Amino acid sequence: MRLTKRILLSLMEVGFLVFLFILTSALAIFLESVAKIHYEYGLLLGTAFSLYGWFLTQKSTRQWKIEYDAARWIEKRSKLTLHPHRARYLRLARRSLLWVPSAFASLVLFFFPIATHLVHPSVRLKHYRISLPWTWTVLLPLFVSEEYSYVDALISANPLGRLGVTPFWDTDTSFSVVTFGSFGHPNEHRRDGATQVSERDFNLGVSTLACWQYLPSDKMRFWHALPKTYWQIDCDISGSRFDLDFWAQFSGREQDIPAFYGVLEHVTRTD
Q1: Domain ranges of the chain
Q2: Looking at domain 106-269, which CATH architecture does it have?
Q3: Considering 55, 58, 228, 250, which has the largest number of Cβ atoms within 10 A of its Cβ?
Q4: 82-93 burial code (b ≥16 CB/10 A, e <16)
Q5: Reading across the β-sheet that carries 195-203, which strands appear in turn?
Q6: Its pTM surpasses 0.70
Q7: What's the whole-number mean pLDDT along residues 34-41?
């Protein structure tokens, strides 16, 4: 009975916090519309009243919580005395569970690219599916539909870079950035003043993807903060209609270009 009361009390406290949050927002909006008080000031005033109400509720239930915790502690101590082996197993289980967050953190630290693939196991852009290597770090935006979406990825041909985009033991942390999108087109003026321009085409089923590889001009490097050794690649479907649009971009080191082209060779249509 006491446990049920404690659970109900906790649920009531959570509900009261939600109510105070809604009341604070409503008060701020009301003061802004009626009394012409800035929303931020109304929010501060509502927060002050909410904190006062929260402290009053905590004061009214404080004595019962102390008695409940004391009774639980006495009951726990008596169980430890009657069942010492069970208490030891529970203690070991609690210590093991404490290492679970560290295990997840280690997964992200040492296998960061793979961890991003666990969050985004498949990349779909409108009518196309992209298969990205496990050594790429995927940065897929949230709350974006396949119809108008894009995906960024960080890549590095350096063996140490495959463990993460910035290994702390490596002094050279350079990596390349690639982007695949399902709407819009790269700006053709990006190639103005470029050198060593070359073109390569990829067959995407019913469409041809044209890729322009070049060394950007000094002006573009300045505005985009690109290192002098970085290459640029712009890819889009020439004369494509809006509902079949697909484009890709590469910005990075020359040794990462083959991996980018390798992904484009395996882009497939989903319909």
Answers
A1: 2-98, 106-269
A2: 3-Layer(aba) Sandwich (3.40)
A3: 250
A4: eeeeeeeeeeee
A5: 137-139, 150-155, 176-181, 247-252, 231-237, 208-215, 195-203
A6: no
A7: 79
